[in-house]
Structure formats: structure tokens, C-alpha cells
Prior knowledge:
It is built from 4 helices and 7 strands; from the N terminus they run βαβαββααβββ. The chain is α/β, with parallel strands linked by helices and 148 residues long. It is globular, with a radius of gyration of 14 Å. Belongs to the TsaE family.
Amino acid sequence: xxxxxxxxxxxxxxxxxxxxxxxxxxxxxxxxxxxxxxxxxxxxxxxxxxxxxxxxxxxxxxxxxxxxxxxxxxxxxxxxxxxxxxxxxxxxxxxxxxxxxxxxxxxxxxxxxxxxxxxxxxxxxxxxxxxxxxxxxxxxxxxxxxxx
Length: 148
């Protein structure tokens, strides 16, 4: 369990995550609206070299980033508007995993088999307005977790 207080700590956590991220990795971010999922994503993208504020991919669903804009290819995915798992096939995320890292908000909108090997992060808003982050760490991430 990790406590994140304020947007700055959420972004700092995202920056730490970026330092161990590699193509082929999947990181999922679950939690209610306003829990800080996009703040973590923005911290990660900034650490990888994104100049300026990363837009939320809520309407685009997939926001791609690639070198030289970032140090490595990343797809920032927001599945909030996905209503049927079959829509994911049209996005080509399964193929994109081979050469890009995937950062997926609202992963529960897809079937669990899509993210079986993901670092699954869940955010909950605590009574004191801090964010409590828990992680399900698959074998591929165990040497990199916890982040330092």
C-alpha cells in the first residue's frame, strides 16, 4: 500500500514508474473518477520526455506517443467509454503490446484476460483526501517492484 497526497505525489509516483517501464509492459490503473489515474499517467509521460500537459484520452480512447516525443513508445488508453469487449479488438491493443508500453485506465471495462500480466494499480480516495494505491504485481514486474 502506498499513500499519495496531492497531485504532485501522484505525478512523482508516475515518474518512478516510467524509470522501470519497457516496451511490452502493461500498467493498468483502476479507481473511481478523480482518484488520480490520469495524474500518475501524466507523471509517467513527463518523465519519458513529453513536453507540456498530456491530454486525457477519454474521448480519443487511445493516445499514442512515440520517439522522439518520448524515450519509448507508449499508448495511453482510457477504456471508460468502451461498452463491449469486442471494441478492444478494433483498437489493436494486442498487436501494439509487442513494441509499445500500454498504460490503461479503466481496465475493468475489458475482460481480465486482456491484462493477465499487467502491473495492476488500484487507487482509492481516503477520508483525508489522500490516495491509497495498491498493486497486484505479476512475475514480470517482481524484480522492479516496489519502486525506489
